[in-house]
Amino acid sequence: MPLDPQVQVFLDEINALHTPPPSELTLEQVRAGVKTDPAELGEPAPMAATEDRRVPGPAGDVPIRIYTPYGPQPLPVFVYFHGGGFVLGDVPSHDAYCTAIAKAAGCIVVSVEYRLAPEHKYPAAPEDAFAATRWVADHAAEFGGDPGRIAVGGDSAGGNLAAVVCLMARDRQASQPVLQVLIYPMTDCRFDTPSHREYAEGYLLSREEMDWFLGCYLAQPEDGQEPYASPLRAESLAGVAPALVITAEYDPLRDEGESYAARLRASGVPATLTRYDGMIHAFARILALFDQAKIALDEVAGALKQAFA
Q1: Burial profile 262-289: b = 16 or more Cβ within 10 angstroms, e = fewer
Q2: Catalytic option among 93, 156, 195, 230
Q3: How far apart are CA 131 and CA 168, in angstroms?
Q4: For the residues of 227-275, what is the DSSP string, one character each?
Q5: Are the CB atoms for 200 and 68 separated by under 8 Å?
């Protein structure tokens, strides 16, 4: 179907800026250009408590932010990994979205500020993500969480990390989350699908940006063949948590996300796949502008409630 009219207006404004590609900017300039815009993302929802902590990681402490909605405790817990190509983003950039999920799903959300590339190459991010998830499982009761009801999720690069955390949990004999929520996840470093070719330019996330992100993330190209970098390349996906996979029609990452859902099903893992027609990459967080973002939020919250029940 054609681009959603709300998305078309948004893209027209973005494309009119003619922002240089990241390869022509400094890392500081790129990061400064993606600061949270409340006009697009909405304001954070009121929480009963918001707490910043630092938890042990493989190379030092990992910052986390704990969002606790109003409601009787103990509450289920959703561990969230932000997007940004493993290079951009942080806990504050996803404040509005994490609080929206906490309120809608009635769960505590723990947002993880994993180490970013290029300062910290793969596998720094997935190792931090796994360490933070294990800490939550061991310490949930300390902040009103239920250690028996833990889910993981993320958008884009964060969706990659959520999928990889589930693979690591299986491979390292750790407990599986009750659900993995993969929102337009990056699952394969090859970038060779039809959606990568069809939507390589003009739809917010470009192929040039993807190549730049990957160059920052991987120390060497062959690292992208490893399943903890490209979970779609895992020999088997059997034994990981059930999944909700959300994709967007006009997203370069669409096909690899949908292929991952198909691989999960083929491995005997329950997986729900929803493609949001007319949408672009990053749409799910743009709650203040896109009606379909609100629908996707309701789907995520509903899936979490069902899994936690």
Answers
A1: ebbeeeebebbbebbebbbbbbbbbbee
A2: 156
A3: 10
A4: TTT-GGG-S--TTSPPEEEEEEEE-TTHHHHHHHHHHHHHTT--EEEEE
A5: no
**281 catalytic, yes or no?**
yes
What does pTM read for this prediction?
0.98
pLDDT tens-digit readout, 225-249 = 999 999 999 999 999 999 999 999 9
Q: Both tokens of residue 38?
A: 């409340």
Q: What token pair was written down for 75? A: 């509450």
5-308 CATH, one of 3.20.20.10, 3.40.50.1980, 3.40.50.1820, 3.40.50.720: 3.40.50.1820
Does residue 255 carry a catalytic annotation?
no
Catalytic residue among 4, 155, 188, 251: 251
3-state secondary structure at position 176: coil
Domain coordinates in residue numbering, the chain: 5-308
pLDDT in tens, 169-196: 999 999 999 999 999 999 999 999 999 9
Strand ranges in the chain using DSSP code E only, listed in sequence order: 49-57, 60-68, 75-81, 108-112, 145-155, 180-183, 243-250, 271-280
What length does the chain have?
309
- Sheet with 243-250, edge to edge strand ranges: 49-57, 60-68, 108-112, 75-81, 145-155, 180-183, 243-250, 271-280
Catalytic residue among 82, 94, 196, 281: 281
Nearest residue to 244 via CA among 166, 181, 163, 177: 181
CA distance linking residue 215 with residue 2, whole number of Å: 32
Residue 156 designated active-site:
yes
